[in-house]
Task: inverse folding
């Protein structure tokens, strides 16, 4: 499976680091792209990633009310919702992308997110574009 | 500015059936500002169409370009190279833009990706309200700066109709009663006397009727000699 | 024409002390990528010897950018910025592949090796697209703090700023500060010093331009003029709530007590903390101290305190216990009570457990606040969000107490989650924030900041509206521009621009796309 997580420096990336320090194990199918803030994510990045073969995507930002940039997590949520509706319109299933909120000291939550995306990936199967070859 | 909204993705995809080399084009003017057809939206639509094509094995080639303004021939001419390589153009500029492209490039199929709606303004980021009815015979000086043609659901010239409740129009949706707003505006201006002046029945001739409206600025029209000299 | 040349460093400790990554194979994988000039193994990137090795390699080879495969950028970024600068490169011309915390530590060996290859490839592809970022360290131009306020807080803030070595000026509409009648004795000294040391300008703020450390201020009103300051502190005092007949405010009650009048037999103190998200430790502190004072002097009097939330953090907790031991009854209610004044007033409210309550009282005191118009209009000029009573909202971000969303503008928010029971310490804390800025050897600016391509800008104002920090503005040429001195690098303006006229250094659209593409390429086994 190919799963990309677009994570903000302050919450998502830091939490992933903490998960590493705690040696919490998760699948290497998950790889992260660091953003300054979850609000940096653009719908076109997400669509391109699916076209290039990503099976699942997630965006992780700060907890609600705690965004380091005040409301970047709200912006990210709106982008993820927009991407979801485009995926649904295309018949690709909007559940392939998800928005999560966590804090930098929640290494356990990062692992939970990673495991949840893996579980959902096995439920939804690989990117339909892969089947076409 | 002109406000429009993109057509649903499925509708655009359906229009494109049978085509293969597709140019998606938007505009930096009104439709960019109402977040429907600017370069960003062009990118998202193009990527969505590529995904659709890949999913259904269509082999579409999708290119992108955003014109400065899509209603001017000189700007639209910048599309020439890309149009030459396309068999369909999806325009998410307004209806004027789509028509300008078709006029300039008669052989390529031009498809509207946008439903052009009205002339309006942003109330808050992301919320756009119709403001002007384009009736060609403006009475804003008599109504405290509020258009009774489009902001009043009945387009009354001597309102109110009496159906409003708590300042909201009887059509619902939290739409303010335009004539209540007109009253308060004239009150603030100290010109309630204007309400006592009856606005006569509207001359609809300058409005949307009897064909496309044509307005001429004689001081800008090139004379025959000017046209000859310019070639 | 210089071709891009990318230097790659692999830290020998990248596999952790377990040494669980096949670093040699990783090095081989990356050396085959285009434009990679060299691959060097460094003993430990964070050690001086390791950095000396890196510096040597960077100086020797004509690379203009480099990649480091090591641990997290969150711990290594600043160090590598210094290294890049020392090597004569722009401090932002490098990327880091975190193959330790995000690979070696969390995956099985085979998985970790493959992922490390992908991570390093992503870092190389992003590095390929880097461009030198604007960056400077600016010395603050002015060590003057402009305190804008109307009373006690303004005086205290100015004095605390001066105590830290800054100069202070106070801008007050009337040219005179309104001080409360009953003051803590401990405040007399600082107030006297403030009067002597901080000049007062009569007037209000008309406009503020410039950057932190060098603001240009225009004042209007009784005095019109311009001045330069390094920082601004908003220090307005909350105005007591407008009261109806028969309802007292804290000051009136204090006057009543001071006059020797008999104390009421039943007293209800309503702490108005229902408006949005007010927390009012100072209001609560007054209520609790007053309750104890009444119950001590007149044990037959009953005192009930109505509030939404008992804000008694820290030292106030012992105040709360003291009040309770003295028989004060706290009534927590869901909404603002309705008060019917009279000889015997009635207070009606809803207790979440008991239900509807109707309390009779000889006296009702309302501790709340009214709209402070001066504060509200100052917030408007500064572009700051405000509370219903006109007080500025402070940043909710951790460790940013006392800051507003605008760099260089500090606020004393009387309803802040972090305010203490003691006004003076609030003012001292905020003054310290301003001092930290103005006394710093240099203000770092730039790096991962946004930049506008004017030719594409539609002047739609999306960027101006979305930025929390007020960095984008519209120039005289009617195009947007981002003041990188104020940009905090969140990237929201980049995403919101409908004409794609804004992009961002270090996290550009092309760089993010390249990382995505590289992330989805499986390395050759």
Result:
């Amino acid at each position: 499976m190919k799963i990309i997580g677009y994570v903000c420096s302050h919450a998502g990336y830091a939490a992933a680091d903490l998960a590493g320090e705690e040696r919490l194990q998760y699948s290497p199918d998950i790889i992260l792209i660091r953003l300054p803030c979850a609000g940096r994510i653009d719908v076109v990045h997400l669509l391109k990633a699916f076209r290039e073969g990503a099976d699942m995507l997630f965006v992780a930002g700060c907890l609600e009310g705690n965004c380091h940039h005040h409301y970047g997590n709200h912006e990210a949520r709106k982008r993820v919702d927009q991407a979801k509706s485009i995926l649904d319109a295309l018949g690709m299933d909007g559940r392939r992308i998800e928005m999560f909120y966590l804090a930098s000291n929640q290494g356990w939550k990062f692992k939970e997110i990673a495991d949840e995306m893996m579980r959902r990936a096995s439920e939804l199967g690989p990117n339909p574009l892969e089947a076409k070859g | 500015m002109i406000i429009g909204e993109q057509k649903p993705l499925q509708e655009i995809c359906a229009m494109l059936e049978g085509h293969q080399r597709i140019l998606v084009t938007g505009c930096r003017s009104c439709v960019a500002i109402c977040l429907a057809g600017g370069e960003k939206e062009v990118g998202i639509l193009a990527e969505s169409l590529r995904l659709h094509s890949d999913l259904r094995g269509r082999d579409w080639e999708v290119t992108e370009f955003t014109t400065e303004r899509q209603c001017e021939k000189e700007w639209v001419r910048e599309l020439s190279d890309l149009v030459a390589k396309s068999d369909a153009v999806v325009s998410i500029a307004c209806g004027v833009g789509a028509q300008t492209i078709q006029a300039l490039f008669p052989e390529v199929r031009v498809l509207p990706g946008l439903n052009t709606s009205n002339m309006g303004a942003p109330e808050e980021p992301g919320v756009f309200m119709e403001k002007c009815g384009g009736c060609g015979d403006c009475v804003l000086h008599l109504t405290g700066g509020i258009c009774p043609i489009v902001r009043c659901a009945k387009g009354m010239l001597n309102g109110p109709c009496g159906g409003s409740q708590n300042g909201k129009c009887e059509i619902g949706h939290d739409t303010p009663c335009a004539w209540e707003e007109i009253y308060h505006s004239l009150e603030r201006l100290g010109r309630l006397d204007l309400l006592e002046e009856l606005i006569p029945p509207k001359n609809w001739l300058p409005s949307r009727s009897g064909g496309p409206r044509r307005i001429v600025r004689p001081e800008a029209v090139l004379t025959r000699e000017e046209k000859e000299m310019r070639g | 024409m210089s071709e891009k040349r990318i230097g790659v460093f692999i830290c020998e400790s990248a596999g952790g002390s377990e040494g669980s990554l096949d670093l040699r194979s990783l090095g081989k994988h990356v050396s085959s990528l285009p434009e990679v000039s060299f691959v060097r193994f460094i003993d430990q990137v964070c050690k001086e010897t390791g950095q000396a090795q890196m510096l040597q390699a960077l100086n020797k080879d004509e690379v203009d950018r480099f990649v480091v495969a090591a641990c997290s950028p969150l711990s290594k970024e600043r160090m590598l910025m210094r290294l890049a600068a020392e090597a004569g490169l722009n401090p932002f011309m490098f990327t880091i592949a975190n193959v330790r915390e995000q690979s070696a530590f969390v995956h099985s060996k085979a998985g970790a090796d493959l992922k490390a290859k992908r991570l390093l490839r992503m870092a190389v592809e992003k590095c390929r697209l880097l461009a030198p970022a604007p960056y400077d360290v600016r010395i603050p131009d002015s060590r003057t703090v402009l305190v804008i306020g109307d009373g006690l807080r303004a005086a205290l803030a100015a004095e605390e700023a001066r105590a830290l070595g800054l100069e202070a000026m106070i801008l007050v509409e009337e040219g005179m500060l309104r001080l409360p009648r009953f003051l803590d004795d401990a405040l007399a000294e600082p107030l006297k010093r403030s009067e002597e040391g901080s000049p007062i300008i009569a007037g209000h703020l008309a406009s503020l331009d410039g950057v932190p450390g060098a603001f240009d201020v225009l004042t209007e009103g009784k005095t019109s003029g311009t001045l330069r300051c390094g920082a601004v502190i908003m220090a307005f005092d909350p105005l007591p709530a407008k009261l109806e007949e028969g309802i007292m405010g804290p000051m009136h009650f204090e006057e009543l007590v001071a006059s020797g009048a008999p104390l009421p037999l039943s007293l209800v103190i309503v702490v108005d903390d229902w408006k949005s998200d007010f927390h009012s430790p100072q209001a609560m502190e007054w209520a609790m101290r007053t309750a104890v004072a009444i119950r001590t002097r007149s044990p037959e009097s009953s005192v009930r305190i109505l509030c939404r939330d008992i804000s008694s953090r820290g030292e106030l907790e012992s105040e709360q216990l003291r009040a309770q031991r003295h028989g004060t009854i706290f009534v927590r209610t869901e909404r603002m009570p309705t008060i019917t004044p009279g000889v015997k007033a009635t207070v009606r409210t809803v207790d979440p457990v008991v239900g509807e309550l109707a309390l009779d009282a000889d006296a009702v005191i309302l501790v709340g606040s009214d709209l402070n118009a001066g504060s509200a209009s100052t917030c408007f000029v500064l572009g700051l969000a405000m509370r219903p009573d006109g007080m500025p909202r402070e940043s909710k971000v951790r460790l940013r107490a006392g800051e507003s969303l605008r760099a260089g503008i500090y606020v004393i928010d009387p309803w802040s989650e972090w305010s203490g029971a003691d006004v003076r310490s609030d003012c001292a804390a905020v003054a310290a924030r301003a001092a930290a800025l103005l006394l710093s050897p240099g203000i770092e600016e730039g790096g991962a900041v946004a930049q506008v391509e004017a030719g594409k800008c539609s002047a739609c104002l999306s960027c101006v509206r979305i930025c929390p920090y007020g960095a984008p503005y519209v120039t005289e040429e009617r195009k947007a521009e981002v003041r990188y001195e104020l940009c905090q690098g969140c990237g929201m303006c980049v995403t919101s621009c409908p004409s794609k006229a804004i992009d961002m250094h270090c996290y550009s659209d092309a760089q993010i796309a390249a990382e995505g593409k590289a992330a989805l390429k499986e390395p050759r086994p």
Remarks:
- Chain B touches chain C through twelve residues (CB under 8 Å).
- The two ends of chain B are 34 Å apart (CA to CA).
